[in-house]
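Weekly modeling sync, notes
Attendees: S.R. (lead), two postdocs, one rotation student

Agenda item 3: backlog of single-chain predictions. S.R. asked that every request posted to the team notebook include the full sequence so nobody has to chase files. The rotation student volunteered to paste the first one in as an example of the format we agreed on. Action items at the bottom.

Example entry:
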Amino acid sequence: MASGSSEKPWFLTDETGARSVVFRAIIFREYHKDITNILGERAADEILYRLGLKLGKTARRLYFNLNRTETEFWTDLTAKFQARGWGNVVSHTHVGNVAEIVVEDSALAEEGVAGNACHLLRGLFAGWLSVFGKVTEAKELQCKSQGYRLCRFQFTINNAEKHDYGLMPWTQSPTITYLPPLSLRSE
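Predicted structure, as returned to the notebook:
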């Protein structure tokens, strides 16, 4: 594509025009198994968490100025998360220094995997939540890979520690619960 051309690129881009790469969830799950076999569970989990953290912080910086309220932040996070196939955010809370996010149908969770499987998502959310302050603890309390219906994440945030892009001056919003798409609802 020539410089200055209005022609669309042949590759997939996001809303900012940045090039995006998509691969199947099963490939990622196999990669997770491979690095666990090579490096051990603890190292593999940490690497995936840090990758997710970097992805989340980068995305947060790209979209930071688009959200003027905390409600817009949560709506944006949920929409982008689902649009990219990670899963369905069914609920979230942010009260004081604790945030909790619940996901249905995580693309990374596979039943029968030893331990929790969603380390990349744990990091991704921690990166997004860094808009509120430094995430000092990020836990996956429940995982679909362990037989739970939902994956549940909890984050502790140091609201006093600002980042280079500052903090949004939002007030606390009430808990918002999103309904799953009609195709996922049990009748």
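Discussion: group reviewed the output briefly. Strands lie at 88-95, 98-104, 134-142, 150-158, 176-177.
Action items: rotation student to repeat for the remaining queue; S.R. to check formatting next week.
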